[in-house]
Amino acid sequence: xxxxxxxxxxxxxxxxxxxxxxxxxxxxxxxxxxxxxxxxxxxxxxxxxxxxxxxxxxxxxxxxxxxxxxxxxxxxxxxxxxxxxxxxxxxxxxxxxxxxxxxxxxxxxxxxxxxxxxxxxxxxxxxxxxxxxxxxxxxxxxxxxxxxxxxxxxxxxxxxxxxxxxxxxxxxxxxxxxxxxxxxxxxxxxxxxxxxxxxxxxxxxxxxxxxxxxxxxxxxxxxxxxxxxxxx
Length: 232
Known about the structure:
The chain is an alpha+beta fold.
């Protein structure tokens, strides 16, 4: 309810202020004419400020955040470990040729997994085959010499009690047998050495592992116990 009379109730506060200012101006104009312009300007500004005051803006509320849920289950998950380091082989063998000759073939590729005893490469075996044959022939000759020496010794040994042979001849035949036996053993050792050399022409892996890069290509001549061919 709005009314301009004293004692009347006013529902709108802004209109109530304007009515009070009007009463004040009316009373002041008759009592203090000199200050009328000042007070009128001040009161007019106050009235306009009171009339133009707006209600505070409404606060914007954020919408509720959506949440996705899932049931918890027990399961094995992979474990990742990120570190800086290097890998080192448990065993590392450098393959060095045990005989010299021409490298004729390689049977594994770089990075290939190999087993113990697997053939890796081959060296020309023909010279070593010839050496083995020569050693075997020498062994046969030594064995024949031993057989002859043994036969002659047995002959003089049966005649020793009859004084048909001298003591010196008997000792000579006995010495020939011992020499022939030694020659046989030497020839057997030569055969064994030649067999080993022939076996060394086939280079095999000494361990289970992974072959590295070949350092010598087929066709090159390698030396005995010099330079590495590959690392396993």
